[in-house]
Amino acid sequence: MSKAIMDELVDVAAAPYRSAGRFPWHFARGKLTYDPIFGELLTRGLIPDGAHILDLGCGLGLLSSWLMAAQDLWRRAAWPAPWPKPPRLASYRGIERGRRDVARASEALRAGTVTCGDIRSSPFGAANVVAIFDVLHYIDCASQDGVLERVCEALTPRGGLLLLRIGDAAAGWRFHVTRLVDVVMTSIRGARWQRLHCRPLASWLAHLDALGFEVTAVPMSRGTLFANVLLIARLPAARSAAVDGAPATPSGV
Ligand SMILES: C[S@@+](CC[C@H](N)C(=O)[O-])C[C@H]1O[C@@H](n2cnc3c(N)ncnc32)[C@H](O)[C@@H]1O
Fold first, then answer.
1. Ligand 1, residues 104, 121, 138: which to mutate, most atoms within 8 A of Cβ?
2. Per-residue pLDDT reduced to its tens digit, 12-40
């Protein structure tokens, strides 16, 4: 992965957060630089072109900013030839319960919207890509199951994709590091401490399989001591229930 391109992507993606304040700008820069998931989404070409993205527990909405930055570099012909063409964002909707994050994201986002809500009860509408990065362990297991069932209903019949990152509770000391850093980051971001509900990777895989997803699990902790795994979960057309193509709640980009 080219460091110069990654640095440029981070600069462009984080720049809009300056207007939201010093903390969100620094936080965005740090997260986009050191969390391997953002680079991997692009280099692996995981998000389809023209994606209608629903981002659950989206925080600052960094995914939207990252994909817009990638489009900027592509348009400037600054995109590395070996990387797949970055996806155009057809729409982006984030749901986040932290009011401060919602305000900061709304200030910074160039594409899409972030609404304040709880993913356990907020309507999902329809989407062809659902992203849930490092979120489900904040809600209890029954609620996790409920969210995943509603994700199935929200995914559109053609190529419904769930990108779910979890911490593998069976990963020994790496999992304990992951949980410790989570607690520290939660307090740095000013959110209240809450009990975490973590599952082993095998349990996530079994649950997604029961819901009809075809899943590929990819370690997603490169360069860190974490136990994070990205579950790339595709829902075959027969199991998808919602609107075909456009989301039920359109959002301009
Ligand atoms: C570790 S952060 C990840 C943020 C974002 N997904 C990312 O990767 O940058 C977890 C986020 O999930 C949010 N969250 C946790 N439980 C939630 C819930 N029940 N409804 C909505 N958001 C929630 C938190 O407020 C926090 O912003």
1. 138
2. 999 999 999 999 999 999 999 999 999 99
Give the fold, CATH level 3, of 3-239: Rossmann fold (3.40.50)
120 touches ligand 1 (CB under 6 Å): yes
Mind listing the pLDDT tens digit for each residue in 169-185?
988 888 888 888 888 87
Q: Can you spell out the DSSP letters for the chain? A: --HHHHHHHHHHHHGGGGGG-HHHHHHHHHHHHH-HHHHHHHHTT-SPTTEEEEEET-TTTHHHHHHHHHHHHHHTT-S-TTSPPPPPEEEEEEEES-HHHHHHHHHH-SSSEEEE--TTTS----BSEEEEES-GGGS-HHHHHHHHHHHHHHB-SSSEEEEEEEE-TTSTHHHHHHHHHHHHHHHHTTPPP-------HHHHHHHHHHTT-EEEEEE--TTSS--EEEEEEEE-GGG--S-SSS-SS----
- Structural domain boundaries in the chain: 3-239
